[in-house]
Amino acid sequence: METKTQVVDALATVLPDIQKVDIESKIERPKDTTKGDYAFPAFFLAKQLHQAPQQIAQDLLAKIDQTGFEKIEVVGPYLNFFLDKVTVGASILDEIISDPVNYGSSNVGEGGNVTIDMSSPNIAKPMSMGHLRSTVIGNALANILKKVNYNPIKINHLGDWGTQFGKLMTAYKMWGSEAEVKADPINTLQKYYVRFHQEAETNPELDEDARAWFKKLEDGDPEAMHLWEWFREESLQLFMKIYDLLDVHFDSFNGEAFYNDKMDEVIELLESKHLLQESKGAEIVDLEKYNLNPALIKKSDGATLYITRDLAAAIYRQRTYNFVQSLYVVGNEQQNHFKQLKAVLKEMGYDWSDNIHHIPFGLITEGGRKLSTRKGHIILLEEVLDDAMQLAKKQIAEKNPTLANADKVAEQVGVGAVVFHDLKNERLNSFDFDLEEVVRFEGETGPYVQYARARSLSILRKAGNPDLTNVDKKISDPNAWEVIKALGNYGDIVQKAAKDYEPSVIAKYTLQLAKDFNQYYAHSKILVEDNEKLARLALVKAVSDVLESGLALLGVQAPNEM
Fold first, then answer.
1. CA–CA distance, 420 with 91 (Å, rounded to integer)
2. Model-wide pTM > 0.90
3. pLDDT at residue 66 above 90?
4. The predicted structure's pLDDT at residue 373
5. Could you tell me which residue ranges the DALR anticodon binding domain spans (predicted)?
6. 130 pLDDT higher than 90
7. Please, what are the domains in the chain?
Protein backbone atom coordinates (compact mmCIF):
# COMPACT_ATOMS: atom_id res chain seq x y z
CA MET A 1 0.00 0.00 0.00
CA GLU A 2 1.20 3.50 -0.84
CA THR A 3 2.24 4.93 2.55
CA LYS A 4 0.38 8.19 1.95
CA THR A 5 -2.89 6.25 1.58
CA GLN A 6 -2.64 5.20 5.23
CA VAL A 7 -2.52 8.87 6.31
CA VAL A 8 -5.39 9.81 3.97
CA ASP A 9 -7.57 6.95 5.30
CA ALA A 10 -6.89 7.90 8.94
CA LEU A 11 -7.85 11.55 8.27
CA ALA A 12 -10.89 10.67 6.14
CA THR A 13 -12.57 8.86 9.04
CA VAL A 14 -12.42 12.03 11.19
CA LEU A 15 -13.18 14.45 8.31
CA PRO A 16 -16.27 12.78 6.75
CA ASP A 17 -17.37 15.95 4.92
CA ILE A 18 -14.15 16.30 2.96
CA GLN A 19 -13.32 14.30 -0.17
CA LYS A 20 -10.31 11.96 0.10
CA VAL A 21 -8.81 13.53 -3.00
CA ASP A 22 -8.88 16.98 -1.27
CA ILE A 23 -7.25 15.56 1.86
CA GLU A 24 -4.57 13.89 -0.24
CA SER A 25 -3.77 17.08 -2.14
CA LYS A 26 -3.01 18.90 1.14
CA ILE A 27 -0.66 16.30 2.62
CA GLU A 28 3.01 17.32 2.63
CA ARG A 29 6.32 15.50 3.15
CA PRO A 30 8.45 17.34 5.70
CA LYS A 31 12.02 17.93 4.47
CA ASP A 32 13.22 17.33 8.03
CA THR A 33 12.29 13.69 8.83
CA THR A 34 12.33 14.46 12.59
CA LYS A 35 9.03 16.25 11.89
CA GLY A 36 7.41 13.03 10.70
CA ASP A 37 6.94 11.13 7.46
CA TYR A 38 3.88 13.14 6.46
CA ALA A 39 2.31 16.39 7.64
CA PHE A 40 -1.24 17.64 7.34
CA PRO A 41 -1.85 21.42 7.59
CA ALA A 42 -5.13 22.38 9.26
CA PHE A 43 -5.20 25.93 7.74
CA PHE A 44 -7.63 25.14 4.95
CA LEU A 45 -10.26 23.90 7.47
CA ALA A 46 -10.28 27.12 9.51
CA LYS A 47 -12.89 28.90 7.37
CA GLN A 48 -15.16 25.87 7.26
CA LEU A 49 -14.94 25.00 10.97
CA HIS A 50 -14.66 28.60 12.28
CA GLN A 51 -11.75 27.62 14.53
CA ALA A 52 -8.04 28.40 14.79
CA PRO A 53 -5.89 25.90 12.81
CA GLN A 54 -3.97 24.93 16.01
CA GLN A 55 -7.24 24.04 17.74
CA ILE A 56 -8.45 22.04 14.72
CA ALA A 57 -5.18 20.06 14.71
CA GLN A 58 -5.59 19.27 18.46
CA ASP A 59 -9.22 18.17 17.98
CA LEU A 60 -8.28 15.89 15.06
CA LEU A 61 -5.49 14.32 17.11
CA ALA A 62 -7.96 13.46 19.88
CA LYS A 63 -10.30 11.68 17.45
CA ILE A 64 -7.89 9.97 15.07
CA ASP A 65 -7.17 6.21 15.20
CA GLN A 66 -3.40 5.88 15.68
CA THR A 67 -3.19 2.19 14.71
CA GLY A 68 -0.38 1.64 12.22
CA PHE A 69 1.45 4.80 13.30
CA GLU A 70 4.45 5.08 15.59
CA LYS A 71 2.94 8.36 16.81
CA ILE A 72 1.04 11.44 15.64
CA GLU A 73 2.04 14.85 17.00
CA VAL A 74 0.61 18.35 16.74
CA VAL A 75 3.15 21.10 15.99
CA GLY A 76 1.36 24.43 15.64
CA PRO A 77 -1.26 24.07 12.90
CA TYR A 78 0.27 20.79 11.62
CA LEU A 79 -0.53 17.18 12.36
CA ASN A 80 2.72 15.25 11.94
CA PHE A 81 2.40 11.54 11.17
CA PHE A 82 5.21 9.12 12.06
CA LEU A 83 4.56 5.75 10.40
CA ASP A 84 5.09 2.50 12.29
CA LYS A 85 8.26 1.90 10.31
CA VAL A 86 8.69 -1.81 11.05
CA THR A 87 5.10 -2.85 10.22
CA VAL A 88 4.63 -0.48 7.29
CA GLY A 89 8.06 -1.40 5.91
CA ALA A 90 7.22 -5.12 6.02
CA SER A 91 3.94 -4.57 4.16
CA ILE A 92 5.66 -2.49 1.43
CA LEU A 93 8.33 -5.17 0.91
CA ASP A 94 5.64 -7.85 0.88
CA GLU A 95 3.65 -6.02 -1.78
CA ILE A 96 6.69 -5.60 -4.07
CA ILE A 97 7.97 -9.15 -3.73
CA SER A 98 4.57 -10.78 -4.17
CA ASP A 99 4.03 -9.04 -7.56
CA PRO A 100 7.09 -7.07 -8.73
CA VAL A 101 5.86 -6.65 -12.31
CA ASN A 102 2.65 -4.84 -11.33
CA TYR A 103 4.05 -2.89 -8.38
CA GLY A 104 3.51 0.84 -8.97
CA SER A 105 0.74 0.23 -11.54
CA SER A 106 -2.68 1.86 -11.31
CA ASN A 107 -5.88 2.21 -13.32
CA VAL A 108 -5.82 5.97 -13.96
CA GLY A 109 -6.20 5.50 -17.73
CA GLU A 110 -8.95 2.86 -17.63
CA GLY A 111 -7.58 1.37 -20.88
CA GLY A 112 -8.11 4.54 -22.96
CA ASN A 113 -6.14 4.95 -26.21
CA VAL A 114 -3.38 7.58 -26.33
CA THR A 115 -1.76 8.32 -29.69
CA ILE A 116 1.84 9.51 -29.43
CA ASP A 117 3.33 11.27 -32.46
CA MET A 118 7.10 10.89 -31.97
CA SER A 119 10.52 10.61 -33.62
CA SER A 120 9.38 11.44 -37.21
CA PRO A 121 12.69 11.72 -39.08
CA ASN A 122 12.88 12.86 -42.71
CA ILE A 123 13.41 10.18 -45.33
CA ALA A 124 16.75 10.24 -47.17
CA LYS A 125 18.44 12.15 -44.35
CA PRO A 126 20.46 10.56 -41.55
CA MET A 127 19.08 10.55 -37.99
CA SER A 128 20.92 13.10 -35.90
CA MET A 129 21.15 13.75 -32.17
CA GLY A 130 18.27 16.15 -32.80
CA HIS A 131 15.98 13.13 -33.30
CA LEU A 132 16.99 11.54 -30.01
CA ARG A 133 14.80 13.65 -27.74
CA SER A 134 11.47 13.14 -29.50
CA THR A 135 12.18 9.40 -29.81
CA VAL A 136 13.18 8.65 -26.21
CA ILE A 137 10.74 11.08 -24.55
CA GLY A 138 7.88 9.64 -26.63
CA ASN A 139 8.93 6.07 -25.84
CA ALA A 140 9.23 6.75 -22.09
CA LEU A 141 5.82 8.45 -22.02
CA ALA A 142 4.30 5.42 -23.77
CA ASN A 143 5.79 3.11 -21.10
CA ILE A 144 4.71 5.36 -18.22
CA LEU A 145 1.16 5.76 -19.57
CA LYS A 146 0.90 2.00 -20.03
CA LYS A 147 1.89 1.55 -16.37
CA VAL A 148 -1.15 3.62 -15.32
CA ASN A 149 -3.37 1.64 -17.73
CA TYR A 150 -3.62 3.79 -20.82
CA ASN A 151 -3.15 2.04 -24.17
CA PRO A 152 -0.34 3.94 -25.93
CA ILE A 153 -0.19 3.93 -29.75
CA LYS A 154 3.25 5.04 -30.97
CA ILE A 155 3.17 6.76 -34.36
CA ASN A 156 6.28 7.56 -36.37
CA HIS A 157 4.95 10.35 -38.61
CA LEU A 158 7.73 10.03 -41.19
CA GLY A 159 8.77 13.04 -43.26
CA ASP A 160 8.24 11.05 -46.45
CA TRP A 161 6.73 13.62 -48.83
CA GLY A 162 7.48 17.07 -50.18
CA THR A 163 9.61 18.99 -52.66
CA GLN A 164 12.84 17.46 -51.32
CA PHE A 165 11.88 14.28 -53.21
CA GLY A 166 11.75 16.22 -56.49
CA LYS A 167 15.25 17.54 -55.73
CA LEU A 168 16.53 14.06 -54.86
CA MET A 169 15.08 12.54 -58.01
CA THR A 170 16.61 15.28 -60.17
CA ALA A 171 20.00 14.78 -58.48
CA TYR A 172 19.80 11.00 -58.78
CA LYS A 173 18.91 11.14 -62.50
CA MET A 174 21.81 13.56 -63.14
CA TRP A 175 24.63 12.24 -60.97
CA GLY A 176 23.40 9.12 -59.21
CA SER A 177 24.20 5.46 -59.42
CA GLU A 178 22.08 2.60 -58.15
CA ALA A 179 25.15 0.72 -56.88
CA GLU A 180 26.34 3.75 -54.90
CA VAL A 181 22.93 4.22 -53.25
CA LYS A 182 22.68 0.53 -52.37
CA ALA A 183 26.18 0.52 -50.84
CA ASP A 184 25.50 3.44 -48.47
CA PRO A 185 21.92 4.68 -48.93
CA ILE A 186 21.49 7.58 -46.54
CA ASN A 187 24.90 9.20 -46.86
CA THR A 188 24.75 8.91 -50.64
CA LEU A 189 21.26 10.43 -50.88
CA GLN A 190 22.33 13.17 -48.46
CA LYS A 191 25.37 13.84 -50.70
CA TYR A 192 23.11 14.15 -53.79
CA TYR A 193 20.79 16.50 -51.89
CA VAL A 194 23.67 18.76 -50.79
CA ARG A 195 25.12 18.77 -54.33
CA PHE A 196 21.71 19.71 -55.75
CA HIS A 197 21.58 22.79 -53.50
CA GLN A 198 25.13 23.81 -54.40
CA GLU A 199 24.54 23.46 -58.16
CA ALA A 200 21.09 25.11 -58.04
CA GLU A 201 22.69 28.34 -56.80
CA THR A 202 24.26 28.86 -60.23
CA ASN A 203 21.75 26.82 -62.23
CA PRO A 204 18.16 27.81 -61.29
CA GLU A 205 16.77 25.44 -63.96
CA LEU A 206 17.46 22.60 -61.53
CA ASP A 207 14.70 23.93 -59.25
CA GLU A 208 12.28 23.76 -62.17
CA ASP A 209 13.35 20.17 -62.87
CA ALA A 210 12.80 19.34 -59.20
CA ARG A 211 9.30 20.82 -59.25
CA ALA A 212 8.55 18.81 -62.38
CA TRP A 213 9.72 15.57 -60.73
CA PHE A 214 7.67 16.25 -57.59
CA LYS A 215 4.63 16.96 -59.79
CA LYS A 216 5.23 13.55 -61.47
CA LEU A 217 5.33 11.98 -58.01
CA GLU A 218 2.08 13.69 -57.00
CA ASP A 219 0.48 12.46 -60.24
CA GLY A 220 1.55 8.86 -59.53
CA ASP A 221 4.11 8.57 -62.37
CA PRO A 222 5.50 4.99 -62.20
CA GLU A 223 9.22 5.96 -62.34
CA ALA A 224 8.80 8.70 -59.73
CA MET A 225 6.78 6.33 -57.49
CA HIS A 226 9.45 3.62 -57.86
CA LEU A 227 12.25 6.02 -56.82
CA TRP A 228 10.18 7.37 -53.90
CA GLU A 229 9.42 3.86 -52.61
CA TRP A 230 13.05 2.84 -52.99
CA PHE A 231 14.42 5.90 -51.13
CA ARG A 232 11.81 5.41 -48.38
CA GLU A 233 12.56 1.71 -47.99
CA GLU A 234 16.36 2.23 -47.82
CA SER A 235 15.94 5.01 -45.23
CA LEU A 236 13.60 2.96 -43.09
CA GLN A 237 16.03 0.05 -42.98
CA LEU A 238 18.72 2.31 -41.57
CA PHE A 239 16.32 3.97 -39.12
CA MET A 240 15.24 0.51 -37.90
CA LYS A 241 18.85 -0.31 -37.02
CA ILE A 242 18.89 2.71 -34.69
CA TYR A 243 15.41 2.00 -33.30
CA ASP A 244 16.47 -1.60 -32.54
CA LEU A 245 19.53 -0.32 -30.67
CA LEU A 246 17.30 2.04 -28.67
CA ASP A 247 14.74 -0.78 -28.24
CA VAL A 248 11.98 1.50 -29.54
CA HIS A 249 9.10 -0.02 -31.52
CA PHE A 250 6.20 1.67 -33.32
CA ASP A 251 2.57 0.81 -33.97
CA SER A 252 2.37 2.92 -37.13
CA PHE A 253 4.76 4.40 -39.71
CA ASN A 254 2.01 6.40 -41.44
CA GLY A 255 3.88 9.55 -42.42
CA GLU A 256 3.10 12.63 -44.49
CA ALA A 257 2.51 10.67 -47.72
CA PHE A 258 -0.25 8.63 -46.05
CA TYR A 259 -2.41 11.77 -45.76
CA ASN A 260 -2.15 12.87 -49.42
CA ASP A 261 -5.63 11.57 -50.26
CA LYS A 262 -7.14 12.77 -46.99
CA MET A 263 -6.62 16.53 -47.34
CA ASP A 264 -9.41 17.25 -49.83
CA GLU A 265 -11.93 16.20 -47.20
CA VAL A 266 -10.39 18.68 -44.72
CA ILE A 267 -10.81 21.52 -47.26
CA GLU A 268 -14.41 20.42 -47.91
CA LEU A 269 -15.18 20.30 -44.17
CA LEU A 270 -13.71 23.78 -43.66
CA GLU A 271 -15.73 25.10 -46.62
CA SER A 272 -18.96 23.46 -45.43
CA LYS A 273 -18.54 25.13 -42.04
CA HIS A 274 -17.79 28.51 -43.75
CA LEU A 275 -14.43 28.75 -42.01
CA LEU A 276 -12.23 29.45 -45.06
CA GLN A 277 -11.57 33.07 -45.95
CA GLU A 278 -9.57 34.46 -48.84
CA SER A 279 -6.52 36.56 -48.04
CA LYS A 280 -4.12 37.74 -50.78
CA GLY A 281 -5.19 34.84 -52.99
CA ALA A 282 -4.53 32.27 -50.24
CA GLU A 283 -7.15 30.57 -48.05
CA ILE A 284 -6.99 30.97 -44.30
CA VAL A 285 -8.92 30.28 -41.10
CA ASP A 286 -9.19 33.39 -38.93
CA LEU A 287 -8.10 32.62 -35.35
CA GLU A 288 -8.24 36.12 -33.92
CA LYS A 289 -10.55 35.08 -31.08
CA TYR A 290 -7.79 32.70 -29.89
CA ASN A 291 -5.18 35.50 -30.10
CA LEU A 292 -3.43 33.54 -32.85
CA ASN A 293 -2.31 34.43 -36.37
CA PRO A 294 -4.56 33.10 -39.14
CA ALA A 295 -3.94 29.47 -40.09
CA LEU A 296 -2.80 29.32 -43.73
CA ILE A 297 -4.62 26.31 -45.21
CA LYS A 298 -4.02 26.68 -48.97
CA LYS A 299 -1.43 28.79 -50.80
CA SER A 300 -2.42 31.01 -53.73
CA ASP A 301 -1.17 28.33 -56.16
CA GLY A 302 -3.59 25.83 -54.57
CA ALA A 303 -0.89 23.86 -52.70
CA THR A 304 -1.88 22.65 -49.25
CA LEU A 305 0.33 23.25 -46.24
CA TYR A 306 1.71 21.42 -43.27
CA ILE A 307 -1.28 22.33 -41.08
CA THR A 308 -3.73 20.91 -43.67
CA ARG A 309 -1.91 17.59 -43.42
CA ASP A 310 -1.87 17.73 -39.61
CA LEU A 311 -5.63 18.43 -39.57
CA ALA A 312 -6.15 15.36 -41.77
CA ALA A 313 -3.88 13.31 -39.46
CA ALA A 314 -5.69 14.45 -36.29
CA ILE A 315 -9.12 13.61 -37.76
CA TYR A 316 -7.87 10.24 -39.05
CA ARG A 317 -6.37 9.35 -35.65
CA GLN A 318 -9.56 10.26 -33.80
CA ARG A 319 -11.67 8.13 -36.16
CA THR A 320 -9.22 5.21 -36.14
CA TYR A 321 -8.23 5.11 -32.48
CA ASN A 322 -10.95 7.13 -30.72
CA PHE A 323 -8.20 8.51 -28.50
CA VAL A 324 -8.72 9.92 -25.00
CA GLN A 325 -5.47 11.86 -25.44
CA SER A 326 -3.33 12.66 -28.46
CA LEU A 327 0.28 13.66 -27.77
CA TYR A 328 2.74 15.34 -30.14
CA VAL A 329 6.31 15.01 -28.85
CA VAL A 330 7.79 17.81 -30.94
CA GLY A 331 10.35 20.56 -30.18
CA ASN A 332 9.46 23.73 -28.34
CA GLU A 333 9.70 25.88 -31.48
CA GLN A 334 6.49 24.29 -32.86
CA GLN A 335 4.31 25.62 -30.04
CA ASN A 336 2.42 28.06 -32.23
CA HIS A 337 1.68 25.42 -34.88
CA PHE A 338 -0.05 23.17 -32.35
CA LYS A 339 -2.04 26.05 -30.85
CA GLN A 340 -3.29 26.79 -34.37
CA LEU A 341 -4.03 23.11 -35.03
CA LYS A 342 -6.13 22.81 -31.86
CA ALA A 343 -7.92 26.11 -32.55
CA VAL A 344 -8.88 25.15 -36.14
CA LEU A 345 -10.19 21.75 -34.96
CA LYS A 346 -12.17 23.54 -32.23
CA GLU A 347 -13.65 25.89 -34.85
CA MET A 348 -14.63 22.81 -36.88
CA GLY A 349 -16.71 21.70 -33.89
CA TYR A 350 -14.37 18.93 -32.71
CA ASP A 351 -14.37 19.15 -28.92
CA TRP A 352 -11.93 16.25 -28.76
CA SER A 353 -9.28 18.81 -29.79
CA ASP A 354 -9.11 19.63 -26.04
CA ASN A 355 -7.44 16.22 -25.60
CA ILE A 356 -4.58 17.09 -27.99
CA HIS A 357 -1.39 18.02 -26.12
CA HIS A 358 1.86 19.31 -27.54
CA ILE A 359 4.71 17.84 -25.47
CA PRO A 360 7.54 20.29 -26.14
CA PHE A 361 11.21 19.86 -25.25
CA GLY A 362 14.42 21.90 -25.21
CA LEU A 363 17.55 21.54 -27.34
CA ILE A 364 20.64 19.39 -26.91
CA THR A 365 23.73 21.61 -27.11
CA GLU A 366 27.45 20.91 -27.15
CA GLY A 367 29.72 23.45 -25.46
CA GLY A 368 26.66 25.69 -25.19
CA ARG A 369 26.10 25.70 -28.97
CA LYS A 370 23.48 23.88 -31.03
CA LEU A 371 24.86 20.50 -32.03
CA SER A 372 27.06 20.37 -35.10
CA THR A 373 30.26 18.56 -35.99
CA ARG A 374 33.47 20.41 -36.83
CA LYS A 375 32.49 20.39 -40.49
CA GLY A 376 29.31 22.22 -39.59
CA HIS A 377 27.26 19.08 -40.19
CA ILE A 378 24.95 17.21 -37.88
CA ILE A 379 26.16 14.83 -35.18
CA LEU A 380 24.87 11.43 -36.26
CA LEU A 381 22.86 9.56 -33.65
CA GLU A 382 24.26 6.20 -34.73
CA GLU A 383 27.84 7.45 -34.20
CA VAL A 384 27.01 8.79 -30.72
CA LEU A 385 25.48 5.43 -29.72
CA ASP A 386 28.52 3.55 -31.11
CA ASP A 387 30.92 5.84 -29.22
CA ALA A 388 28.89 5.40 -26.01
CA MET A 389 29.07 1.60 -26.34
CA GLN A 390 32.85 1.74 -26.86
CA LEU A 391 33.28 3.95 -23.78
CA ALA A 392 31.14 1.59 -21.72
CA LYS A 393 33.13 -1.39 -22.98
CA LYS A 394 36.40 0.25 -21.91
CA GLN A 395 35.12 0.93 -18.37
CA ILE A 396 33.67 -2.56 -18.03
CA ALA A 397 37.03 -4.07 -19.10
CA GLU A 398 38.76 -2.07 -16.32
CA LYS A 399 36.19 -2.85 -13.60
CA ASN A 400 35.23 -6.42 -14.47
CA PRO A 401 37.64 -7.98 -17.02
CA THR A 402 36.16 -11.48 -16.72
CA LEU A 403 32.55 -10.43 -17.31
CA ALA A 404 30.65 -12.84 -19.56
CA ASN A 405 28.82 -11.35 -22.61
CA ALA A 406 30.69 -8.03 -22.09
CA ASP A 407 29.65 -6.77 -25.56
CA LYS A 408 25.93 -7.11 -24.80
CA VAL A 409 26.39 -5.41 -21.41
CA ALA A 410 28.40 -2.60 -23.06
CA GLU A 411 25.48 -2.05 -25.45
CA GLN A 412 22.96 -1.95 -22.59
CA VAL A 413 25.16 0.43 -20.58
CA GLY A 414 26.28 2.68 -23.45
CA VAL A 415 22.89 3.11 -25.11
CA GLY A 416 21.17 3.24 -21.69
CA ALA A 417 23.54 6.02 -20.60
CA VAL A 418 22.61 8.22 -23.58
CA VAL A 419 18.87 7.62 -23.09
CA PHE A 420 19.00 8.14 -19.31
CA HIS A 421 21.00 11.35 -19.63
CA ASP A 422 18.37 12.78 -21.98
CA LEU A 423 15.49 11.79 -19.71
CA LYS A 424 16.94 12.89 -16.35
CA ASN A 425 16.73 16.48 -17.63
CA GLU A 426 13.30 18.09 -17.36
CA ARG A 427 12.14 17.93 -20.95
CA LEU A 428 11.67 21.71 -21.38
CA ASN A 429 15.26 22.38 -20.37
CA SER A 430 18.01 22.46 -22.96
CA PHE A 431 21.14 20.64 -21.87
CA ASP A 432 24.77 20.27 -22.82
CA PHE A 433 25.93 16.87 -24.06
CA ASP A 434 29.35 15.53 -23.05
CA LEU A 435 29.70 11.82 -23.81
CA GLU A 436 32.49 11.22 -21.24
CA GLU A 437 30.22 12.56 -18.47
CA VAL A 438 27.19 10.66 -19.72
CA VAL A 439 28.78 7.18 -19.62
CA ARG A 440 30.49 7.52 -16.23
CA PHE A 441 29.71 4.86 -13.63
CA GLU A 442 29.73 7.47 -10.85
CA GLY A 443 27.59 10.59 -10.50
CA GLU A 444 24.05 11.22 -11.67
CA THR A 445 24.18 8.84 -14.62
CA GLY A 446 22.30 5.86 -16.03
CA PRO A 447 25.25 3.51 -15.40
CA TYR A 448 25.22 4.54 -11.71
CA VAL A 449 21.60 3.32 -11.42
CA GLN A 450 22.28 0.18 -13.48
CA TYR A 451 25.30 -0.56 -11.26
CA ALA A 452 23.23 -0.21 -8.05
CA ARG A 453 20.79 -2.80 -9.42
CA ALA A 454 23.60 -5.15 -10.53
CA ARG A 455 25.06 -4.85 -7.02
CA SER A 456 21.74 -5.82 -5.45
CA LEU A 457 21.58 -8.96 -7.63
CA SER A 458 25.17 -9.81 -6.71
CA ILE A 459 24.23 -9.70 -2.98
CA LEU A 460 21.27 -12.02 -3.65
CA ARG A 461 23.50 -14.45 -5.59
CA LYS A 462 25.98 -14.52 -2.66
CA ALA A 463 23.06 -15.40 -0.39
CA GLY A 464 22.06 -18.27 -2.71
CA ASN A 465 19.00 -16.50 -4.18
CA PRO A 466 16.59 -17.62 -1.41
CA ASP A 467 12.81 -17.60 -1.95
CA LEU A 468 11.69 -14.45 -0.11
CA THR A 469 7.95 -14.66 -0.76
CA ASN A 470 6.75 -15.82 2.65
CA VAL A 471 9.54 -14.68 4.98
CA ASP A 472 9.04 -12.26 7.88
CA LYS A 473 9.99 -8.88 6.36
CA LYS A 474 10.18 -6.78 9.54
CA ILE A 475 13.43 -4.79 9.79
CA SER A 476 14.31 -2.94 12.98
CA ASP A 477 17.47 -1.28 11.53
CA PRO A 478 16.61 2.46 11.21
CA ASN A 479 19.07 2.76 8.27
CA ALA A 480 16.62 0.76 6.15
CA TRP A 481 13.75 3.23 6.50
CA GLU A 482 14.84 5.80 3.87
CA VAL A 483 15.12 3.00 1.29
CA ILE A 484 11.76 1.46 2.23
CA LYS A 485 10.04 4.84 2.24
CA ALA A 486 11.39 5.53 -1.26
CA LEU A 487 10.14 2.11 -2.42
CA GLY A 488 6.71 2.90 -0.98
CA ASN A 489 6.49 6.12 -3.03
CA TYR A 490 6.98 4.45 -6.41
CA GLY A 491 3.29 4.34 -7.40
CA ASP A 492 2.92 8.04 -6.56
CA ILE A 493 5.98 8.89 -8.63
CA VAL A 494 4.68 6.97 -11.68
CA GLN A 495 1.33 8.78 -11.49
CA LYS A 496 3.03 12.18 -11.23
CA ALA A 497 5.23 11.40 -14.27
CA ALA A 498 2.12 10.38 -16.25
CA LYS A 499 0.10 13.42 -15.20
CA ASP A 500 2.89 15.90 -16.04
CA TYR A 501 4.16 14.02 -19.14
CA GLU A 502 7.56 14.22 -17.46
CA PRO A 503 9.91 11.19 -17.62
CA SER A 504 12.57 13.06 -15.59
CA VAL A 505 10.41 12.40 -12.50
CA ILE A 506 11.14 8.67 -12.91
CA ALA A 507 14.83 9.18 -13.76
CA LYS A 508 15.40 11.37 -10.68
CA TYR A 509 13.53 8.85 -8.54
CA THR A 510 15.74 5.95 -9.68
CA LEU A 511 18.86 8.04 -8.98
CA GLN A 512 17.64 8.81 -5.45
CA LEU A 513 16.66 5.19 -4.78
CA ALA A 514 20.09 4.02 -5.99
CA LYS A 515 21.77 6.59 -3.69
CA ASP A 516 19.61 5.58 -0.70
CA PHE A 517 20.40 1.92 -1.34
CA ASN A 518 24.16 2.53 -1.67
CA GLN A 519 24.03 4.51 1.59
CA TYR A 520 22.21 1.65 3.32
CA TYR A 521 24.68 -0.89 1.90
CA ALA A 522 27.60 1.19 3.24
CA HIS A 523 26.17 1.31 6.80
CA SER A 524 24.46 -2.05 7.29
CA LYS A 525 25.83 -5.59 7.07
CA ILE A 526 23.22 -7.35 4.96
CA LEU A 527 24.54 -10.92 4.97
CA VAL A 528 25.23 -11.21 8.71
CA GLU A 529 23.52 -14.33 10.14
CA ASP A 530 20.69 -13.16 12.46
CA ASN A 531 16.90 -13.38 12.53
CA GLU A 532 16.46 -10.36 10.20
CA LYS A 533 18.80 -11.55 7.43
CA LEU A 534 15.97 -12.72 5.14
CA ALA A 535 14.08 -9.46 5.73
CA ARG A 536 17.18 -7.49 4.67
CA LEU A 537 17.51 -9.67 1.57
CA ALA A 538 13.83 -8.96 0.84
CA LEU A 539 14.73 -5.25 0.92
CA VAL A 540 17.61 -5.85 -1.51
CA LYS A 541 15.32 -7.83 -3.82
CA ALA A 542 12.66 -5.08 -3.69
CA VAL A 543 15.28 -2.45 -4.62
CA SER A 544 16.40 -4.60 -7.55
CA ASP A 545 12.79 -5.03 -8.77
CA VAL A 546 11.87 -1.35 -8.50
CA LEU A 547 15.10 -0.10 -10.11
CA GLU A 548 14.55 -2.52 -12.98
CA SER A 549 10.95 -1.33 -13.34
CA GLY A 550 11.91 2.37 -13.22
CA LEU A 551 14.67 1.92 -15.81
CA ALA A 552 12.29 -0.07 -18.04
CA LEU A 553 9.80 2.82 -17.97
CA LEU A 554 12.57 5.06 -19.30
CA GLY A 555 13.43 2.53 -22.01
CA VAL A 556 16.76 1.67 -20.35
CA GLN A 557 17.83 -1.96 -19.95
CA ALA A 558 19.19 -3.25 -16.66
CA PRO A 559 22.08 -5.73 -17.02
CA ASN A 560 22.28 -8.38 -14.27
CA GLU A 561 26.06 -8.00 -14.02
CA MET A 562 28.39 -5.12 -14.85
1. 31
2. yes
3. yes
4. 40
5. 449-562
6. no
7. 1-83 (3.30.1360.70), 162-247 (no CATH), 381-554 (1.10.730.10)
